[in-house]
Amino acid sequence: MKLQKLVYYSQAWSLVWDDKPLFDSKIEAWVDGPVVPDLYQEHKGKFTVSIDDFNGDVSNLSSDNISTIDEVLKAYSDKNAQWLSDLTHMEDPWLNARKGLLGSQRGNNEITLDSMGEYYSSL
Q: Which of 83, 33, 110 has the alpha carbon at shortest distance from 7?
């Protein structure tokens, strides 16, 4: 869960600081907070993950991408997964995407890039 939230915040702050998305995969408003389904499929069923669990290529990242990710990690990596999930539950992008769903009701409504950019740029 923590990985999902760190990826979510990396996307959010990339939209604000770099004026573009960090990645193309969509983000959905699941019960426990924002989730990137494509990433979830890569680590589903694992309690911990390592770099060897993924097929990414760091050379695809620009210096701006790396700087954004580094800043997100400085700000959030010391927080636990539940704290990060709770934080997302207080923020408009997740709340708005969950409208009409009960608290524990599953859903896959998308958290749009526009909603993320608008919200996080106002902070």
A: 33
CB 30 within 8 Å of CB 106? yes
Which single residue is written with the structure tokens 């599953």? 106
What's the order of all strands across the beta sheet hosting 110-111?
33-35, 27-30, 110-111
Q: Which residues contact 37 (CB under 8 A, 6 or more apart)?
A: 25, 26, 28, 108
Helix (H, G, I), strand (E, B) or coil at 33: strand
Q: Give strand ranges (E) for 19-93.
A: 27-30, 33-35
Q: What is the pTM of this model?
A: 0.94
Q: What pairs with residue 30 in β-bridges?
A: 33
Q: What is the pLDDT of residues 60-104, one digit of tens each?
A: 999 999 999 999 999 999 999 999 999 999 999 999 999 999 989
Distances in Å between the Cα of 34 and the Cα atoms of 30, 59, 62, 76, 114 are 6, 26, 24, 15, 15
